[in-house]
Design goal:
CATH superfamily of the largest domain: Winged helix-like DNA-binding domain superfamily/Winged helix DNA-binding domain
CATH architecture of the largest domain: Orthogonal Bundle
Number of helices: 9
Strand content: 5-15%
Order of helices and strands: HHHEEHEHEHHEEHHE
Helix content: 25-40%
Amino acid sequence: MDAFEVPISVLRLAEAAVFASPEPLTWQKLQPLLPRDLDRGIVFAALERHCADRGVILVRAGEGWTFRTAPDLGAQLREMMTETRRLPRVVMETLVLIALHQPITRAEIEEIRGVALAQSTIDILLESGLVKPWGRKEVAGRPTLWVTTPRFLSQFGLRSLRDLPSSHLTRTNRAKATDGGPLRANEGDGQSSASTPDLNGDLAAEVK
């Protein structure tokens, strides 16, 4: 069976599951709903083709799939989407540092930024579902390590951390990056990041 032979009943069910999922839908969650003989690549390829000419298209986000507005409609819809909540600058800067240096501790974030980090900043990121704890660092005090979540990838239209628009990620690190997992931005290049790169031009800072 190829993508052209997937039954419409399967496509409808997969489409509904992706739509209903609060996070990008993974194959592990979708597979139990479908016939056992179906291949992941074939199902998602068929669904992607099924939605290709619609106003909402299927896109990969980390380990899963989600629906996004078709790129050619973005400008027209942007005029209508006026009620959005932008992340405060300090929160966005913190999120960028976590994304580029994860797993990272609060003290390490403060060291890079040069100022104290308010707990409310971490709370906003937690409430937004953009970061999560990733165990503790084995040093004195065992501080919490922070990493980004699959929602971070979905929110900013990234398939994986390799897609982060930053020169701080070396070619070696891009090859090592895993979808949604920890990645050291300056690992192996002998350099340290003393400033926060401006990603606002590449990553929309709006939280819907």
